Amino acid sequence: MTFDYIHDIQTVYRKVVNATSRPGQLADLAEEVALLEEDGKNDCPASFLLLALTLFDQEVTFAVMSKKAEVISKILNQFTYAKPVAIEQADYILILQDAGEGALQEAIGKAKSGTLRNPHTSASLIVEVEKVSNNQTLQLKGPGIRTTAFIDVKTSEKWLELRQMKNREYPLGVDFLFIDQEQQLLSLPRTTQISENRVIV
């Protein structure tokens, strides 16, 4: 099978929307990522290219944090016509695991938070991590969650406290998309309240 740039992207879009409207519910992108990898686009991580194909267009700006940032930025621009810009101006900030210690903290600090008049002009961070799961490390509450949901994000980067600070003045803030090595996607919109689960079963 080959990657279908219409059907498969529509499928991924529905998965991303579903994960975003139901925080804590993971979206499995493994099948679509595998098809894209078979298509031979190996200079850019397939998971990031897949999300860019789904979310980017010529009106979108983005920044890449990676040792291969220049190459990846060029590929994303060629496929989506989105424009690479400085982190402070980007609609989407892509942080790959090879970006180095402190990259995620830098991205959160520099990401635009929107304005009271235009909160939608804030940034979304797409972050590559080791693993996301529904292990009961963190507790989620908020819109799209009936009572509570639970997640775990395996990464060496500290992000939770910085996210709380960045999003403290709702509707200002940033949204997160975590993608792991097994192509599981976790979406955490700014409306989601996150706390450490003190009673882990």
Model description:
The chain has 201 residues and is α/β, with parallel strands linked by helices. The chain is 30% helix and 24% strand. It is built from six helices and ten strands. A seven-stranded mixed beta sheet has the order 1-9-8-5-4-2-3. Helix 4 (69-80) links the parallel strand 2 and strand 3 (83-84). Helix 1 (7-21) crosses helix 3 (46-55). The longest helix has 15 residues, at 7-21. The radius of gyration is 16 Å and the shape is globular. The mean pLDDT is 95.
Through-space gap between termini? 42 Å
Low-confidence stretches: none
Enumerate the strands of the largest sheet in spatial order, edge to edge or round the barrel: 1-9-8-5-4-2-3
The SS-based structural class is: alpha/beta
Instruction: Report the C-alpha radius of gyration, rounded.
Output: 16 Å
Mean pLDDT equals 95
The helix tally amounts to: 6
* Binned strand content: 15-25%
User: What proportion of the residues is helical, as a percent range?
Assistant: 25-40%
Which sheet architecture does the biggest sheet show?
Answer: 7 strands, mixed
